[in-house]
Amino acid sequence: MKPETHIQSEPGIYGPRSVSIPAYVAGIFLVGCPLIVITIFSFLQRGDFGSGVIHKFTLDAYRTVFFETDLMGVQSFNFTYLTIIFRSVLLAFTVTIICLIVGIPTAIWIALQKKSTQRILIVLVTIPFWVNVLARTYAWMLLLADGGLFNQLGAPVLLYTSWATFIGLTYAFLPFMVLPIYASAEKLDKNILEAAFDLGASGWRVLLRIVIPMIKFGIFAGVAIVFIPALGAYVQPALLGGNKTMLIGSLINDQFGESRNWPVGSALAVLLLAMTGLILISTRKRKLEIAS
Amino acid sequence: MRQKTWSVAHLPMIRPMGIASLIFLYLPLLTVLVFSFNKSEDATVWSGFSTRWYSTILENSDLIRAAKVSLSIAIPCAVIASLVATGLAIGIGRATGKLQNALRALVNAPLVLPEIVTAVGTLAFFSLVGIPLHYSSLLLAHVVMCIPFAFLPIRSRLRDFDENIFEAARDLGASSVRVMTKISIPLLIPALLSSGLLSFIISMDDFLTSLFVSGPETTTLPIYIFGLLKLGATPEVNVIAALLLIIPTLGLLAGITWTTTRRRSNEANNK
Asked: What is the DSSP string of A243-278?
């Protein structure tokens, strides 16, 4: 018989409830407040000298992102920022697709090994994730540079092109895709796959009609945790792409650094935040549809 | 007995893709490792085995200073983040109230938000309330970033325990403080160690948040290395990258071995 569960759902079963307060304070003041502050900053005027803002309401920051005003005072769409945002979305999207194409089979492959082999393979997938992102990015600088290993083998020099950024991001986020998919593929009942084969289904049919639908949760989780950081990436575009093609991460960085336009930087961060929210909501909504 | 007719090989693309992605993951890391032992002055051309570049980095005082800054942040950060995360896990229990869920989501938000957003947000917030960018601002930012990661092992360990232990203690008249100090915390010690290790690595590795929130005197190791990397490949950077690869890997493997032997001995004891 199952024990009654009403007491278990109470907070404070493991100790006094008040010990959560430091975490709440940290969450409210150091996560919540910063998000509110950049939202407010995005509606303020740019500071006259150097960094900062003037506390006066204006929509200038958003106007700068979307429109440009010519000498006659006529406003038209400004495609510079929009192109950068679109390019970032496209890059993050491509990285996510490639991570899916490589990550799904890898996760399934690992999940269908013996338990002991699975453990070793998961550690192998996890290790690159623990290596400093700068070291991992540098590894690709070494491979893709002019006179680098791939170049010595006759490949074209990809360093400081968008291709290098793309490879670096795919490399950085592949483990993010494999791990959640593995977590759901691990629960696959192999007997079902075997039954499908016995009944004459082809390999592709089993993969597409049985395996993939059963690991949907993992796939949605993987998409969210690859797409979001890829969208705001800064390190790989800066080191591998040589910052030649602007992306939203480097643009935000510039507005808070060299360009010293905090309101525009904040407005871009708010847009990035909004896109993140959309991705999280849409991947969660899909979950509910399947569950119901 | 029925003969097993089915294997992974029946699924198309699975095995070749799996093997290919392991090669993809390890080829760059192995390259860095091999080239850190290169004798040549040229970072990318192999000319023979040597450990000469390893000795040069010990003389790099900027690097050592940056490493000290990083350690002076990462160690207190690991301790504070694990303690705060333990408090969160213990206090929140299995509560599913709206307010608790909202607060927990807020604390965990750094896990899902793009780091650049939280980094510039923190910078803007610090400048608004007038917190100078120095050691303590950097430490605060790191702690907040590490709490959600530190929370994961603690919460999963708490969920593994039999609830009846805690209920029995309460029924026998133990106060909630006593339950925490006599039961919850002792049981959580292994999870606290993983939380601490996790937070330590995340703090040591962090680049983006540190870039925005650190002052001129708090140049962390990743910020210093980023500066070097912008200049391109050199034999010295090969060695630094190799060390960044070797040290966490060894730490991680040691951690895994420790937990598996522990689990095995626990299982043996229980039998």
From this structure: T-S--HHHHHHHHHTTT--HHHHHHHHHHHHHHHHH
Q: What pLDDT digit, counting tens, does each position of A48-105 carry?
A: 765 678 888 888 888 888 887 777 777 778 888 889 999 999 999 999 999 999 999 9
A2 assigned to some structural domain: no
Give burial (CB, 10 Å; 0-12/13-18/19+) of B3: exposed
* pLDDT reading at A10 higher than 60: no
Q: From the DSSP assignment, how many helices (H) and strands (E) are in chain B?
A: 12, 0
Q: Name the band, by pLDDT with cuts 50, 70 and 90, for residue A6.
A: very low
Q: In Å, how far are A29, A267, B3, B104, B122 from B73, measured between CA atoms?
A: 20, 31, 59, 25, 17
pLDDT tens, B92-142?
887 778 888 899 999 999 998 999 999 999 999 998 998 888 899 999 999
CA B166 to chain centre: 30
Q: Structure tokens of B256? A: 């895994």
Better-scored residue on pLDDT, B142 or A13: B142
Look up the CATH number of the domain holding residue B201: 1.10.3720.10
Q: What is the mean pLDDT of residues B39-64?
A: 86
Residue range(s) defining the domain that contains residue A55: 17-77
Which among A102, A142, A174 is the nearest to B44, CB-wise?
Answer: A142
CA–CA min distance A8, chain B (Å):
7
How many domains does chain B fold into? 1
Query: Is residue B125 one of the residues assigned to a domain?
Result: yes
Q: Domain check: are A270 and A153 in the same one?
A: yes
Return the axis-axis angle of helices B115-129 and B98-112, rounded to nearest 10°. 110
Cα(A130)–Cα(B29) distance, rounded to whole angstroms? 12
- A251: tokens are 């643009």
Which candidate, B130, B137, B131, B121, places its Cα nearest to that of B218? Answer: B137
- The 10s digit of each residue's pLDDT in B129-161 is 988 888 999 999 999 999 999 999 998 888 888
Contact assignment for A130 to B229 by CB distance below 8 Å: no
User: How many angstroms separate the CA atoms of B204 and B220, rounded?
Assistant: 8
Same domain membership, residue A231 and residue A129: yes
Note whether A11 contacts B229, CB cutoff 8 Å. Answer: no
Q: How many CB contacts within 8 angstroms connect chain A with chain B?
A: 329
Does any domain span residue B36? no
Two tokens at A216? 């949907």
- Measured over the CA atoms of residue B162, residue B166, residue B169 and residue B172, the dihedral's sign is negative
pLDDT at A56: 81
Measured on CA atoms in the order B122, B127, B129, B135, is the torsion positive or negative?
positive
Q: What residue numbers bound the domain in which B125 lies? A: 63-231
Q: Supply the pTM of this predicted model.
A: 0.88
On whether the CB atoms of residues A172 and A129 are closer than 8 A, the answer is no
Residues in chain A closer than 8 A to B87 (CB atoms)? 19-23
In this structure, the strands spanning A53-57 and A75-77 are unpaired
Domain shared by A21 and A160, yes or no: no
